[in-house]
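Input set for joint prediction.
Command: fold jointly, output C-alpha cells.
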Amino acid sequence: MQVLLLNGSSKDDAFSQQLCDIFVNELEKHDNKVEVIELCDTKIESCLGCFGCWVKTPGICVINDAGRDLAKSVVQSDLVISVSLVTFGGYSYELKKALDRLIPIISPFFKKINGEVHHKPRYKRYPKAISIGTLTENKQELIDTFQYLVKRNAINMHSPVYLSRVFLNSEAVQGLRQEVFEVLKEAGAVK
Amino acid sequence: MNKRALLLIGSLKPASSTSEAVGNYLLDKLRQYDIKGEKIKLIQILKHEDGINELISAINNCDILILSSPLYLDSAPAIVTKAMELISNERKSREHIKRPRMIAICNSGFPEAHQNNTALSIYRHFANASSFEWAGGLALGGGGSIDSRPIDSLGGMVRNVVKSLDLTAAAIAGGEHIPEEAIN
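C-alpha cells >
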C-alpha cells in the first residue's frame, strides 16, 4: 500500500513525533511504502480561495509550491494519515494549511450526498483516510468536534474509508503501539 | 464611553469578499447603536512582522469581537487557525485580561447553512479557551448570492441575511447573545 503521512505537529511536540514514528515502523514492517511530509518544515502557501484550480488550471493549484505536489501525492496514495494537535476541536495550522490546498482534487461541480450538496469527485479513486488528533487533556467536547470534522471532511474529499482517533499524550508507548496497529488493521494496511 | 467592536476578516481575497461584506453590514448596524467599529484583515496583518502585536492590541481594546470567515473544508481557513493559535497563546500567558464578547459568522457556497456548523463549533472552542465570552455564531449558506457585494445593494435576494444580521446587531448592542430567531 502507498501511504502518505502528514505530520502537522510542531517540532517540540515529542509525543506526536513519537506517534508518527510508531505509525511509520508498523507500516514498514508490513511492507507498505511510506512517504512522510513534515509540514512544519514544508513551505506551503495558504489557499487563496481564488478557485483557479477549478476554472483556470483544472486540478492544479495556481500556486506552484509544495502544496501542488502534496495534492498529487494525496491522489496517488492508497491511505493518507494525518497527525495533529487537536486545536479548538479542529486541526493545527500546519496541517490545515496543507489540507486547504487539496481543493484541486475535487470537482467544482456539485452532486447530492445524503441529501446535501457537495462537490463531485474529480478522480475515480480517492485514498482512505486516518486522522489522528493528540490532546494533553481529555476534553470530550473537543474530541467530538474533531471526530465530526473528520467525518465531514471524508464526505467532501470522497474518502472510501475514514477513521479518526484521539490520543492523550499521557498514554504509554506500549498502549500506543497496540492502538496504532488496530487502526492500521481497520484501514487494511496491516494484517 | 462608546463600546468598540472589532471585525476580523478571515477571507484571503485581497479585495472584497463575502466575509467582509457581511461583517461590514454588521459594523454599520452596530454604529447605529453608538458602537464604534474597526476592521482587520487577518491575511494582511499577519504578513507583517509586528502584525500579531497589532492584532493583540486591537483585541485588547475591543468590547465585541466579530470573526467573519469563509468555510474551508468544513472548518476555519488556515490563516484563521493561525490567528486563533497566536491569540490564544498570548491570552493564556496573561494573568489579567479583558474578556470581550465574541461572535462568529461563517459563510459558504453550499445551500445548506448547517454545513458551517463544524467551523462555528471550532470558533466557540477557541472563544472558551481564550477567555472570550461566546455570544453565538451565524451560519450563512448560499454565499454566492452575496458574491462579495455590499449587502445593502442586493435587495430582497438577501432579506433573510439582512434580518439575521439586524437581529444580531440589536442583541449584541444590548449585551445579549445572538437570538435563535437570527440563527434560524
